[in-house]
Structures are given as C-alpha cells and as structure tokens.
Amino acid sequence: NAGVTQTPKFRVLKTGQSMTLLCAQDMNHEYMYWYRQDPGMGLRLIHYSVGEGTTAKGEVPDGYNVSRLKKQNFLLGLESAAPSQTSVYFCASSQGPGLFTGELFFGEGSRLTVL
Amino acid sequence: RKEVEQDPGPFNVPEGATVAFNCTYSNSASQSFFWYRQDCRKEPKLLMSVYSSGNEDGRFTAQLNRASQYISLLIRDSKLSDSATYLCVVNTGNTGKLIFGQGTTLQVKP
After folding, report:
1. Which among A41, A102, A107 has the least Cβ separation from residue B102?
2. Cis link prior to A8 (omega < 30° from 0)?
3. What is d(CA A46, CA A56) in angstroms, rounded to the nearest whole number?
4. Closest alpha carbon to B82 in B38, B26, B28, B25
5. Is B80 near chain A, with CB under 8 Å?
6. How far, rounded to the nearest angstrom, does the alpha carbon of residue B27 sit from its chain's CA centroid?
7. What is the secondary structure of A60-107 as a DSSP string?
8. In CA terms, which of A100, B22, B42, B107 is 20 to 30 Å from B86?
9. Chain-centre distance of CA A34, in angstroms?
10. Which residues numbered 47-76 in B keep a CB inside 8 Å of some CB on A?
11. What's the pLDDT tens digit per position in B29-53?
12. By the 8 A CB rule, do B17 and B106 touch?
C-alpha cells in the first residue's frame, strides 16, 4: 500500500547547488503534480503531467524542471537552488481523463531548506 | 490576483457552532470544484466534491454559485476534530490542472 512516495523527505542545500526530488506512484495514475507549500500561501502548482512523456507549467514553474519518462515517476529538479525555494514540496497523482474525480493522492511531503 | 482566493482566518469557534467558509475563483471556464482538508504538517486529503446543485455529506454542505464564481463550505455542529485547514480547489479546465486556494484555518474550542 505504498501509494505516492517522495524521496528524500528532508534535504538541506546551499545556494547554487542542484538536486532532484523523486515521486513514485504505484496506482497506475495518469496525472501527476508537484506543488510547493509555504506559510500563508497554500499549495501552489509548480508543474504537472497528464501522461508519460508530457509535462506542463503550473502557477510557479520558474527555477524548476520536471520529467516524466516513466508513467510511475515524476521528477522535480532544481538546477541552481535559491533561498526562495525553501519550502515543503508535495507530489500528488490522480486518475486520468474519463476517470478523473478530483481526488489527488499526495505523498508525505519533502522539506527542503536552501541556505 | 490569485486564481482561487480564500479568507485565511483563523476562524475560532466553540464546539457545536456552525461555521461557513467561502472561496472565489477567477476563471469562469473552471469546471469542477472540491474542498480538501489539511491537518497540521500533513498532506491534504479530499473532503468532498462540490456539485452544481449543492451537496451534503453528514455535517458538511458544499455549494457552488457559478454566476458569482464562488464556492462555500458549511460545517454544522463543529467538533474538536474538525480543527484543520480547509482548502478550496478548482479544476480550471478539463485538464487535471488543479489550483488550490491558500486555505482557511479552523480552530474548534471546547
């Protein structure tokens, strides 16, 4: 019953370093999402994917890149981390078109601090 | 202006009270609407979908007003366990692109 798994759960970076957050889901979901959550800001959509090999920009895509080479995985990359990217990152997945109910299944979150 | 806006609160209410939250959205093409609940330091979870005719799930009632572009959530007979942040979520097209409001915090006190 893994559901959506995010790795790592915690990471501290220095400004300018790069890193990749991995999201894996075992529910055969078409849609996958990356959100960030900051105090008082709610969840903001960074990028999302509606299927293997596809990605699209969300509300706050700058400074991030994503890839969806396999249906079950959605990677979020930070090429040159900035303190403004200190946040909690949530990955989520959902059923695709025709089956979409609006229910997102979230991972437990990844807490990233950029010094 | 954010696509989905909520009053962040906090709303502090006694047990047994009725409380209502509103949410407005800017994209008139938005097609589907949801309320999520998030407990402190946890991931959000779907509370209920919002249907055009309004819908109820136990003590929770959701309403949609497309003309005014707002969604509401009513909680009756509040319990201590209802204390959480309630997030309004809008599907801005038929694309699976879900936009969250900033959330409204509810504290139910004994």
Report:
1. A41
2. yes
3. 9
4. B38
5. no
6. 17
7. --TT-EEE-SSTTEEEEEESS--GGG-EEEEEEEE--TTT--S--EE-
8. A100
9. 3
10. 49
11. 888 899 999 999 899 999 999 988 8
12. no
What lies within 8 Å, CB to CB, of A33 at 6+ separation is A45, A47, A48, A49, A58, A74, A91, A92, A93, A94, A104, B98
Residue reference for tokens 């509040």: B78
Asked if the model's pLDDT at residue A100 lies above 80, the reply is no
Residue that the structure tokens 């709610």 belong to: A42
d(CA A57, CA A65): 9
Residue A85 has φ and ψ, to the nearest 5°, of -95, 5
Under DSSP, is residue B82 helix (H, G, I), strand (E, B) or coil? Answer: helix
| Cα–Cα distance measured from residue B19 to residue B2, given in angstroms and rounded to the nearest whole number | 24
- On whether the CB atoms of residues B99 and B92 are closer than 8 A, the answer is yes
Smallest CA-to-CA distance from B70 within B18, B15, B109, B33 is with B33
Residue B95 forms contact with A (CB below 8 Å): yes
Token code pair at residue A113: 């601090």
Supply the pLDDT for residue A1. 62
- Output the six-digit token pair for B5: 């806006």
